[in-house]
Amino acid sequence: DVDVLIVGAGHAGAACAIALRQGKFDGTILVIGAEPELPYERPPLSKEYLAGDKPFERLLIRPAGFWAERDVAFRLGTRVTAIDGSAHSVTTDAGDTIGYRHLVWATGGAPRRLTCDGHDLTGVHTVRDRADADRMMAELPRVEHVVVIGGGYIGLEAAAVLAKFGKKVVLLEALDRVLARVAGEPLSRFFEAEHRAHGVEVRLGAAVDCILGEDRVTGVRLSDGEVLRADMVIVGIGIVPAVEPLLAAGAEGGNGVAVDGQCRTSLPDIFAIGDCALHANRFAGGASIRVESVQNANDQAAVAAKAILGQPVAYEAVPWFWSNQYDIKLQTVGLSIGYDLAVVRGDTASRSFTVAYLKQGRVIALDCVNAVKDYVQGRKLVTEGNSVDVARLADPAVPLKELAG
Ligand code: FAD
């Protein structure tokens, strides 16, 4: 038996092992991961790595020696397929049964796939792991026309990289604006305009009928019959949390596995953290959500580690996120879910501005575009949920730190 068994060697799993050793945990730690690599940073897969600007070695969260020194063991290329909560053991696809004292489920999610005809043709890609990015990069020299399906952050980032490579990119979004689920209209329109200015054809309200091709993709047919030429299709339509074995073992959940404020699932000694964990988030007004970000993975990992160390703390970390597209650096703090007012601070045409989201007069989130100062100074507004004077908030000459407290 191992003392702590971590399933998933991604951001959250790695951070949990690190936090345990930092907290002087001296029991055995085993990390089981489906991918062949040691834990690495996922965000560059649609940014610097895809662009060829950062080699894989620089994506590793820690070098191999770090794990060896701290006695964190890995079993990679291995998937946990079943959990027996009462026996405190898991089964892997290699046929092993491994007992645990504490289990930390940190499996993230699998990219949501299209279900239409042609969805599995060669040349149709999702971007979740290194293998996905490597497959795309290997094809790129032969690719001229790219269709990106989904105007979320990953789709937009991939479109930016490919447009910079000189590919002809069409981006399809089903809703009437990009980033509709995560940002307010001013930010959506800004990114839409930036992509158009870089030669990306952005199509809103677009519905895909099917993917065309014989052995590899040649096009995308829209529901109105129009056919777009495509040598490559990138599908960025979200993830499905990888929680099946846990739910099958009786854990509560649905779109993710339900956890309490200490990241405990409804099953004894089983925690869940990161993209797969459905939790009541203070910054979403207590609503039960999953947060897909490095921040959430790291901070929930620390919370689970604390609980295992017998020093329980509640998960209350302020959410933050970033996205890089072209020369635009977006930094987000807070969650804009349920906002009733979006205030633009500064001029979007200047390409440096902030969108502030308010709910009942309180600042709940900021999207800072090339505006590091607002991001740094505005965190406090979001953390404390300050009520602010909207006219002063909208005035970029008033530093955000003057509005706090
Ligand atoms: P993951 O990092 O996905 O790790 C889960 C691991 O578990 C995977 O390796 C998976 O293969 C493995 N696994 C799954 N099931 C099993 C099983 N049954 N047995 C064993 N192993 C299993 N976040 C940001 O904050 N900023 C960004 O700019 C940003 N950009 C992103 C760009 C891309 C292309 C992607 C894909 C994500 C991005 N994210 C970004 C999100 C961020 O990477 C995730 O929120 C983070 O990786 C979540 O960590 P996790 O440990 O929960 O899941």
Keywords for this structure?
single chain, 405 residues, alpha/beta, seven-stranded mixed beta sheet, 9 helices, globular, FAD, FAD/NAD-bd_sf, FAD-oxidoreductase/Apoptosis
Strand content: 25-35%
The portion of residues assigned to helices is 10-25%
Main β sheet profile: 7 strands, mixed
Coarse shape: globular
Q: What is the residue-averaged pLDDT?
A: 97
- Total helical segments: 9
- What is the radius of gyration? 22 Å
Query: Residue ranges: pLDDT <50 for 5 or more in a row?
Result: none
Count of β-strands? 26
Pfam families: Pyr_redox_2 (PF07992), Reductase_C (PF14759)
Domain Reductase C-terminal: 320-404
Protein name: Pyridine nucleotide-disulfide oxidoreductase
GO cellular component, one term: cytoplasm
Structure characterization notes:
By secondary structure, the protein is an alpha/beta fold. Helix content is 22%, strand content 30%. It has helices at 11-22, 64-69, 130-139, 153-164, 185-197, 244-248, 294-308, 372-384, 390-393, and strands spanning 2-7, 29-33, 72-76, 80-84, 89-92, 97-105, 109-111, 124-126, 145-149, 168-172, 201-203, 208-213, 217-222, 227-229, 232-235, 239-241, 253-254, 256-258, 270-272, 277-280, 288-289, 320-325, 328-334, 341-345, 353-359, 362-369. Strands 1, 2, 3, 4, 5, 6 and 19 form a seven-stranded mixed sheet that branches. A five-stranded parallel sheet has the order 8-15-9-10-11. Helix 1 runs parallel beside helix 7 (294-308). The longest helix has 15 residues, at 294-308. Residues 7-13, 32-35, 42-43, 45-46, 79-80, 106-108, 127-128, 154, 242, 274-275, 292-295, 297, 321-323 line the site of flavin-adenine dinucleotide.
